[in-house]
Design goal:
single chain; alpha/beta; BirA Bifunctional Protein, domain 2; Rossmann fold; 3 domains; 9-stranded mixed β-sheet; 12 helices; about 35% helix; elongated
Length: about 375
């Protein structure tokens, strides 16, 4: 376990440095986008509520609720082209109660002419991202191709597929059984769906069980991709606490491949979410494949002990008699050594620092 959890700001710096090492380019987006762009893709958003305003020219604008959509919109998806970008952005979303919140997130997207290596790279970077901010982590993985292949096999209507997808996400076997009975789905297919919903195990142990549920070319292809991914994680030593879990599902209109969610011990919700969303590219008239993830930095505060929530490494206190030159000398000396320094006059109540240097009452007459 790490001695301390980094602040969201420190975590963002470390994550951005990691992504740069792998050749990802920094993506900066505007705070505002025309609302119509988000309205056309509301199903892709975490929350369909979007904060809007009318600009002086009359256009309805939105305060950005998502980064991925903007990256895809601006991506060059010409034949043979690919883009790898990372970001550290604030987005604005409505929570369960309807109140809008500013959410700080860092992540990356890989878009265009992608191969299996790119998929594996993004998943391994998701694991490395979790490891940067907390040693006790879990990554749960599923594959929308397997789910959609199985649902296609049972011959369910679009409405029934949606209901079954929700039941699988909730690991609700009785509800799956009820849906299957009401829609004339065979008992053996009902059993497959229930087994899929209940599957949760380390990746290598889960694959044989998943293989027993495969029914067509689509599920075979998804299984093959998961098996290859498992091999990569084992070869890189990143397979610890990586599980197969088909409660990790998403909208089949957008997501089509590997999807995953990351957790850190001490945070009661996922701190990282990502996956393949080739269907979004097709919907926006672009070719190729796409995969990415976001890590929600604000949630890291839940992991930090009070002693970790410090304002500075070194606090320098001064009064009216303290020579300014002495303050500057000591401040610059500490900064040069890599410390975060806060200089404050008089009372330091409420300021948390590892070390305090008190220069009060040590005047020397030279106040230059």
């Amino acid at each position: 376990m790490q001695d301390s959890i980094p602040s969201p700001e420190a975590a963002a710096r470390s994550l951005c440095a990691l992504y740069k090492q792998y050749g990802y380019r920094h993506f900066r987006m505007s705070k505002f986008e025309e609302y119509d762009f988000y309205a056309r893709n509301k199903s892709f958003l975490v929350s369909e509520n979007v904060l809007t305003f009318t600009e002086p020219g009359g256009r309805l604008m939105a305060l950005k609720p998502d980064v991925t959509l903007s990256i895809v919109k601006n991506a060059d998806c010409a034949e043979g082209a690919s883009q790898k970008v990372y970001y550290n952005e604030k987005v604005y979303r409505a929570e369960g109660g309807g109140e809008f919140r500013e959410i700080n997130q860092a992540g990356l997207e890989c878009v265009g002419d992608l191969g299996f290596y790119d998929i594996a790279e993004v998943v391994t970077l998701a694991i490395r991202s979790l490891d940067l901010v907390g040693a006790e982590r879990i990554l749960d993985i599923s594959h929308m191709g397997f789910v959609s292949g199985l649902l296609a096999h049972v011959g369910a209507s679009e409405q029934t597929r949606s209901e079954l997808l929700s039941a699988i996400a909730g690991k609700n076997a009785p509800y799956i059984g009820l849906i299957c009975r009401e829609n004339g789905i065979a008992d053996e297919d009902r059993d497959r769906l229930c087994a899929l919903a209940g599957l949760y195990a380390p990746m290598r142990k889960a694959l044989p069980a998943l293989a027993s549920l495969s029914v067509n070319d689509q599920t075979d292809a998804a299984l093959s991709e998961l098996e290859r991914l498992c091999g990569v994680l084992e070869a890189t030593g990143l397979d610890r606490s990586v599980n197969i879990d088909f409660s990790i599902v998403n909208d089949m209109n957008y997501y089509n491949g590997v999807i995953f969610r990351g957790y850190l011990n001490g945070v009661p919700q996922g701190v990282l979410a990502g996956g393949s969303y080739d269907s979004l590219l097709a919907k926006m008239g672009k070719r190729g494949r796409a995969i990415g993830f976001a890590l929600y930095l604000d949630l890291l505060e839940q992991l930090r002990a009070p002693g970790d929530r410090k304002d500075a490494d070194v606090l320098i206190l001064y009064d009216d008699e303290t020579p300014v030159g002495e303050i500057l000398r000591l401040r610059d000396e500490q900064i040069a050594a890599g410390a975060r320094v806060r200089v404050q006059r008089a009372d330091a109540q409420g300021v948390v620092a590892d070390e305090t240097v008190d220069l009060r009452g040590k005047g020397g007459g030279d106040h230059a």
